[in-house]
């Protein structure tokens, strides 16, 4: 594996100080959402067009997370920051079936409204949407110029890949989930991630706080180079893990413990996986996952040291994301033919016992009764359904009982500020974003399931 690395000089940093201030000092609700909520199709179509594109239509690290630039950036992440490759299979998992042509008018109810499927996809800024039933493609759509062979960001759905890799090492006896993570990464001794157990990290149950100027999203983005970083901010993932502090009181969740969703825990777990195996995260994904079922190469964003962003750097085609989700579904049913160990999936998806903690720490509507384990959301709907979720509308939904697998790639604006500790978590009960919820995607998927099961 070859990783392109460079050192960011002080001159480069100084030239971007004004952008760093805009992105890392001002509230995130301003830095990511300025310019309005829903970008016009015309504005998006003009981005990065021409030789060269006009200055105001060029995507940069300063504007790539807000409309109208984000849609282009999410499809061209390897042109925005350094990346490492992930190799595909010589014999990919077959996806049979023909996408239905008469399902666009399928309707479902959400927040008291009846929604057409085609309108749902348009109104949630969908780039690609695919539904598999019993392993066969029954619905597949590409919107706003997105191409079937084009990679797209996974954002935090990447965490679910990291959680599955960890379960594989647990299965092999190489990783003790009840051990302090610092047992595997001594550099994190005394650090909240290192002092927590491996399983606490995997389940987002670490009482940790971040500096106010370096929230867990933008602080990491700056370390990887996705956005400009301030001169005194960490510019590697390993250094990003060291800026945190332990919290107590309400931040620690009291006697019931804490559930606090943030990027540090999966990055710390990935550090342990590298130490245990002597291999990079990208190598592990290639050997244990991608080379067993994927049709195209994937890639992941890395920092200047070549360290992969294990909490959000994955990029792949829509169909290969569906192959990953389908392989997980099959493994959950005891079928190893998809290339994933059923025993590892059983470890990753053991019933979570943290519903009360999750309810306190979850900010998104439509997830009542959920649990969380190994970076997978457990829906607790009686069907054994699980979800992977990523910012800006990336979603995977797997319903084992209904043999249903769904993937959604999107470019949905999201400028909400992320809390720097559990005490700062606030519910996001915004009725205007009901369509963006996991509940809406599940309702759409179940409507398709009903239509194809008649």
Automatic annotation (TrEMBL):
This is 6-aminohexanoate hydrolase. InterPro entries: Beta-lactam-related (IPR001466), Beta-lactam/transpept-like (IPR012338), Diverse_Enzym_Activities (IPR050789). The lineage of its organism: Bacteria, Pseudomonadati, Pseudomonadota, Betaproteobacteria, Burkholderiales. Keywords: Hydrolase, Signal. The keyword Cell cycle does not apply. Residues 34-63 are annotated as: Disordered. Pfam families: Beta-lactamase. Residues 1-33 form the signal peptide. One of its GO terms (molecular function) is hydrolase activity. The keyword Signal applies. Residues 127-422 form the Beta-lactamase-related domain.
